[in-house]
Amino acid sequence: MASHLYQSIANDLEKKIRQSVYTNGEKLPSVRKLSQQQSVSVSTVLMAYNLLEDRDLIEVRPKSGYYVRSPAQQTFEAPQLKHGSVTPKLVSTSALVMDVMRSSSNPRCISFGAAAPGSDFPILTQLKKTFAQLIRSKPFLGQGYSTGLGDEKLRRALAKRAADAKVSVHADEIVIASGCQSAVGLCLKVLCEPGDIVAVESPSYYGLLQLIESMGLKAIEIPSDPHSGLSIEALKLALEQWPIKTVLGVPNFNNPLGAQMPERSKQALVELINEYEISFIEDDIYGELGFSDKRPTAVKHYDTEGRVLLCSSASKMLEPQLGLGWILPGQFMQQIEYERFLSTSNQFCLPQMAVAEVLARSTFDRHLRLARESYRQRRDRMFELIAQHFPAETRLSSPQGGFVAWLQLPNQMNATDLYVKAKESGIIIAPGEIFSSNANKFKSSVRLTYSNIWTPEREKAITSLGNLVKEM
Ligand SMILES: Cc1ncc(COP(=O)(O)O)c(C=O)c1O
User: Are 123 and 131 a contacting pair, CB within 8 Å?
Assistant: First the structure.
């Protein structure tokens, strides 16, 4: 009986660790407290903790207590989910998207899923220090609502940086939002009515597709080339056939292909939207992360009629948790400001103040140089590993910036099945079907994020992924 008791206490704690109720490095209840909570003897609790130590899940720290081990210390093979527990729920793309997002943030998994930036850059320490200084020196609470366009110092810093993308803008022509996705959402709200048609690249970042779907809009998918991005020819044809309300695209290093639109296409795009008297929502979130020395221009550079609404954020070049984006709305300034008031009028000012400080320093340019070079090297390493461990027929995009790559698996393999199988081994990828409104279109494709430093565990995960592909 006693042996069952300690096992069941251990199993219960293991479940809580796997569900991240107790997270990495967190202290578990003391032996005395747990024995009181569970009404069992101290020795039963000690046996339960010993069992969890044997399972590599916790560690004892002398004179301190029991702690959850970090995933790097835990054995990588630890299965995350029981076989088949995900498959029946994947009934719609939005369910699959949420599953990928949830799994990507599970600290016990090795993730190539969500497109989060690398977590090892010194700028993050500088950002933390900046937060601490601001908290000490600025009266950031008790200031009422932060109405209007957002922090002025930040808008001034953004206006200065826009010059690198050859965009000339005044601080008062910029509206702060709570992330790039939410910035695009504000633009769609201003530009479209439910039922309207939005032209998007195909494949396209799933967050943008979900946004379109959730607002009752229809997406028309325009083919995107792995090198040159959105096809202007195909867009022209679509504009001739359909009453397209607006075009939404990521011209610089799009997600998931990493493609970069040539300058002449950017120019042609503006000419087209002028001709049809529509608008272009330019998502420039990866614009600063190209692998060449020169930052590419934005489509907005060619905008002569204020029809380009440029959206971006600090999520990829700094940190997504900041929840900080911005819009250069051109002729739609007033409407965007009003939508911001309706949806995000009380955005927390501290991240805005911190990012304003960081952007204004020369260390930020140093950070960008380091990030670009690191991502280029990390891409190259991923490609080497894929060449070594995946079937020879696997096809790869050649990202020219950013930190995501697009793979085409051989033999029309089902990438969602691969996602489910890989997840059982604690490896998270993004299956191709979520990058289109047509679930079959990219059934054999996969997006992999390479932003993080290559550790032996991450390299081993790519080997395991390659082996899974070969087995399937
Ligand atoms: C192209 C693109 N736009 C927008 C977003 C979301 O940006 P944010 O986190 O700033 O809302 C992402 C995130 O992956 C993205 O890849």
Answer: no
